[in-house]
Amino acid sequence: MVLEATMIVVDNSESSRNGDYVPSRWEAQSDAVNMIFSAKTQANPESSVGLMSMGGKGPEMLVTLTTDFGKVLDGMHRTKIRGSTYLATGIQIAGLALKHRQNKSQKQRIIVFTCSTIHEDEASLVKLAKKMKKTGVAVDFVAFGDLDPDNTKKLEAFNEAVNSGDGSHLVIVPPGPSLLSDHLLSSTILGGDGSAPRGGDDGVGGVGESGGGFEFGVDPSAEPELALALRMSMEEEKARQEKENKAKAEAAKESLEGIPEEGGESQPLLNANGEASGSGPVQAIEETKKEKDDDADKMDTA
After folding, report:
1. Burial of residue 73, with CB atoms counted within 10 A of its CB: 0-12 exposed, 13-18 middle, 19 or more buried
2. What is the pLDDT along the chain (302 residues), one digit of tens a residue?
3. Packing angle between helix 122-134 and helix 87-99, nearest 10 degrees?
């Protein structure tokens, strides 16, 4: 599998508050970041992922290149939604972070999420794209949210200028019921065929209904490690649920055994001689009959 150092640049501008993507533009990015990290590190354990934001007062480095998923989660949690985006500056800082990667054998890649208006002009973006291409950095764009023609034209121009051997990709995701992460899973960014995810009756993609129809949305021939990890995770969850159900059933059985029988009878109905025992109704009838016989004997004597 490809050994890569990947910097993920998220859009934390005010536009990311919009709820036209499920559950919101920012939460959709967060889910997609988690999925990208898992896909990259499971494809090759020596691959590393970094995280930065490009909104607010300026781009901010949240997490340097790492294989620790917890650091990425913490970086997303600390990010504040504010201001507008600084796309060009964010890409340049991400490029510098990749330049200082520890493992120089890692290929360099930047994945940029953009859901707001792009303020930079097309000429400056094309110039930056050529610089990235010269330094061997692949740049992927995930465009969603504000998809006006001007934004799309700028991104297409950047992608055309930076592309080297189809190594960089541009994925445009229109609003809809499907998750942003589902679109990415089937996109060329993560090795998919670029087809849109297929949803169920409710329009939301489910297991085995995205990523070209493959189970878990992953082609096992292209990503065997990721497919195996997803399958093992599902089997572990199934085993955990079965264990919990078994424990609950045993607990319910023990609680039923502790309940006394109706009527409070703790003795067997028959003793060792086969006769009725205890204070049951049979014994009461016999005692009544014996009393009547005694009364009859007394009357005869008299």
Report:
1. middle
2. 689 999 999 999 999 999 999 899 999 999 999 999 999 999 999 999 999 999 999 999 999 999 999 999 999 999 999 999 999 999 999 999 999 999 999 999 999 999 999 999 999 999 999 999 999 999 999 999 988 999 999 999 999 999 988 789 999 999 888 889 999 988 889 876 555 554 433 333 333 333 444 555 555 555 666 666 676 667 777 778 888 888 888 888 777 766 655 554 455 555 656 555 554 454 555 555 555 555 555 554 54
3. 10
> Residue 282 and residue 275: Cα distance in Å, rounded?
10
Cβ pair 100, 67 in contact under 8 A? no
Angstrom distance (rounded) from CA 178 to CA 159: 25
CA nearest to 73, candidates 1, 159, 10, 150: 10
Neighbour-count burial for 241-278, b at 16+ CB within 10 Å, e otherwise: eeeeeeeeeeeeeeeeeeeeeeeeeeeeeeeeeeebbe
Distance, CA of 82 to CA of 93 (rounded, Å): 19
The residues with which 112 forms a beta bridge, in sequence order, are 9, 141
CA angle 91, 92, 98 (to 5 degrees): 90
Block residue for tokens 């409710």: 202
CA distances for 245 relative to 147, 239, 257, 276, angstroms: 48, 10, 19, 43
DSSP H/E element including 127: helix 122-134
| Contact predicate 49/42, CB 8 Å | no
DSSP 79: P
Q: Model's pTM, two decimal places?
A: 0.66
Distance CA 109, CA 290 (A): 102
